[in-house]
Amino acid sequence: MFCVTPPELETKMNITKGGLVLFSANSNSSCMELSKKIAERLGVEMGKVQVYQEPNRETRVQIQESVRGKDVFIIQTVSKDVNTTIMELLIMVYACKTSCAKSIIGVIPYFPYSKQCKMRKRGSIVSKLLASMMCKAGLTHLITMDLHQKEIQGFFNIPVDNLRASPFLLQYIQEE
């Protein structure tokens, strides 16, 4: 299901207050903390979403507010259970896509499987697979930090902002 917005309504949606929705993808405490700090800095409230595991370990996502015509930011930190983290993100992105979000931006400080970015013997380039899955699910932009190899950006057919942490770390060390 894909939604097409008539041009005359598109300008109205861009002007309306609340054209931005910020979601935290999981209940991991570090993800919630980061999401709350970002929301506070932007002066917006966190979006309402439920992300949980069924008894059989299937991930369930329920977006609890309208994202139609809005710019959606999904913050996802990687927990110990990397594969569950990835599924949470993919399902959440797809839920926003099918709910007609204008754009879906993934904020993933650590990109999982980024070390698996080169062919090794009979292996596979898993970071390319993950990039393809994220784009197919509906991600329109990715913001991440310190990719293992900057060439990973080429695996995506969407814009990727690969932020560098080193300037902030250097500043912190110098100040302390």
Automatic annotation (TrEMBL):
Matches recorded under InterPro entries = Pribosyltran_N, PRTase-like, Rib-P_diPkinase
User: How is this protein annotated for GO cellular component?
Assistant: cytoplasm; ribose phosphate diphosphokinase complex
Q: Which organism is it from?
A: Pongo abelii
Swiss-Prot/TrEMBL keywords:
Nucleotide biosynthesis
Q: Which Gene3D superfamilies match?
A: 3.40.50.2020
From the Swiss-Prot or TrEMBL record, give the protein name: Phosphoribosyl pyrophosphate synthase-associated protein 2
Function field: Seems to play a negative regulatory role in 5-phosphoribose 1-diphosphate synthesis.
Q: Name one GO biological process term.
A: 5-phosphoribose 1-diphosphate biosynthetic process
Q: Name one GO molecular function term.
A: ATP binding
Similarity section: Belongs to the ribose-phosphate pyrophosphokinase family.
